[in-house]
Amino acid sequence: MVSSLALSQTITPLSSNTTESLRGLSVVSAQIIWASGTHGTYLRSLDGGETWTASQVPGGESLDFRDVQAFSADQAYLLSAGPGEQSRIYKTDDAGKNWTLQFTNPEARGFFDCMAFWDTKHGIAIGDSLDGRFELISTEDGAHWASTAGAFGPRSFVDEGSFAASGTCIAVQGENVVWFVTGVNAARVFHSSNRGQTWSAADAPLLHDGNSAGIFSIAPGQNGSAVIAGGDYQHPELDGVKLAYTEDGGMTWRPSPLAPQSFFSAIALDPSNSTRIIAVGSTHTGYALDIRDDHWRMFWDTNLNAVAFAGPSVAYAVGPKGTIVRFTLP
Questions:
Q1: Residue 175 is part of a domain; what is its CATH number?
Q2: Are the C-beta atoms of 117 and 123 separated by less than 8 Å?
Q3: Model confidence at 4, in pLDDT bands (50, 70, 90)?
Q4: Whether residue 3 has pLDDT greater than 70
């Protein structure tokens, strides 16, 4: 734990101008940041989080935007998570003055969780499994979405699915690589090197017994490295592995020795140093210089949902009741 003085020096609460629960977060640059949440809410800051503008997507007041992917001050995608047609994807090219509804889930049993983009026109989204296969859709033009799983899509175990907790259950890297992670009596990492045409899967050592447990977040690094985070959100302090890493492209996963560990809904890697991590959850946030260390550099009592780096020493996180904070990291 850290002292109240250290806490005030490293975590700065920001005024979000909303009380909605926030789970989506996209850091475009040190100045441009987007966030999203319940009741069709999205937020934007153009000054490094000092001020925020909160708005609602017209007609989306009943939607829960669990993921946002922004590319500039003007262009962003929003994904709402929910059963059936509540799972949707919207896009704006004019800072939210107009939103285009690009995708509405046609499957009443379906539930989409999160999305990721290689560039402004090429993205992929993951949904919970149906009839033993995960739902995957992709766009090749930034406007139209179509199934990418087909008859050869990745197969699931019974009830296995992803968690729409932080917009980070799927991630891309380079030009063609995509990863997604699962839970619900399973803890697997799926990997594709051809934008989802074929997949491999590997078991991970994270806690995964029950419907509320598994892997919640993945962050790819460099040279075949990646980190994952999760646990049991209904029992955040339950003993078990909540963090793991790979150094061989996802073929094998090793538990992190960092202690203590609690439930983490999101993990982020410093893009300038792919060993430094920050992980957030409903009870704690941890910051470490290396996921292979046995102790945290800092460990706070917090309630946060999603996190992203904005530079070597700055990260942002969002959480319940409109919470947005800035971390200044040593």
A1: 2.130.10.10
A2: yes
A3: very low
A4: no
